[in-house]
Amino acid sequence: MRLAVPAKVLLQRFAFLFLVLAAFGIMLLSKAETVVVEKVSTVVVDVFAPIMDVLSRPAAAVNDAVKTVRGLADMREENVRLKRENERLLVWQEAARRLSSQNQALQSLLDFKPAPNSQSIATRVIADSGGVFVRSVVVNAGDRDGVRKGQAAVSGAGLAGRVSTAGYQSARILLITDINSRVPVLIESSRDRAILSGDNSGKPRLTFLPANASVKAGDRVVTSGHGGVFPPGLQVGRIEVAPDGVMRVKPNVRFEQLEFVRLIDFAGVSPVAPKVDRGAPPKQAASR
Fold it and tell me: How far apart are CA 154 and CA 162, in angstroms?
């Protein structure tokens, strides 16, 4: 005990000096005996390598856990961003589909080429009567757009009907399948004339067809131009013979898919008033 106390005091006083001298001694030894120092350092590394490995594992595990948490946070943010982007893309996809269908419907109107002197208005079908006794549609163009009663309504496939009433900003189209519709038509192959009479079915009847008319199923039917409402040559449909022997016409226009129509004024092409019986009184000419 008596010797330990002075040694402890001496060590505390000269510890720094001892460490400095030891450092210089090691430096001198490393310069003088390089092989010995390398062996000693190798042995020291081999001894402490397992300890360092054990001590480094918790740190590595903590580092991996931190990376995992950060990755989950990044994935969550990326997931939120992708969901928002997906919602925007779905909106654009729906808009693209809607515009594509409208484009196809509008392109179908280009199949019909009106006469150069005629005036036309492309308009959208906004309502369908859908009734049992009425076959008509409403369009979003009216008197302010130049629509008037009697104008022909056509699509790219052919004749759809005529304007029955025209308001300020809307108009009603009487379809050729309506019971009140009467259209003078012509059998394209035989040139026989008839009247296309609607009966609220999907296939209007051919009436006033000559008894000796040579028509058959599949013949094309076009407008004859009589009456001055429709010009000659508008495609209407094809003849089908019903089981009861009645001649019917399957329209080219698919009314259940009618989205756009072109309202055409043929007044400048086909005058309504016929130039006959010039000597007849005005009242009789008007009645005709």
Answer: 8
User: What's at 187, amino acid-wise?
Assistant: I
The class that CATH gives domain 119-265 is mainly beta
Helix (H) or strand (E) holding 223: strand 220-223
Q: Is 192 within 8 Å of 209 (Cβ atoms)?
A: yes
Q: Are 212 and 164 in contact (CB under 8 A)?
A: no
- Is 197 in a helix, a strand, or coil? strand
| Residue 287 · residue 273 · CB < 8 Å | no
Domain ranges of the chain: 13-109, 119-265
Separation CA 122–CA 145 (nearest Å): 10
End-to-end CA distance of the chain: 148
208 vs 133, higher pLDDT: 208
Residue 62's pLDDT is 79
**CA atoms of 74 and 135, how far apart (whole Å):** 60
Reported pTM? 0.56
Question: For 40-80, what is each residue's pLDDT tens digit?
Answer: 777 777 777 777 777 777 777 778 888 888 888 888 888 88
What DSSP character marks residue 200? Answer: S
Those residues with Cβ within 8 angstroms of residue 229's Cβ, 6 or more apart along the chain or in another chain: 150, 152, 162, 266, 272
Tens digit of each residue's pLDDT (9 = 90 or more) over 112-130 = 555 555 678 889 899 887 6
Contact 197, 203 (CB under 8 A): no
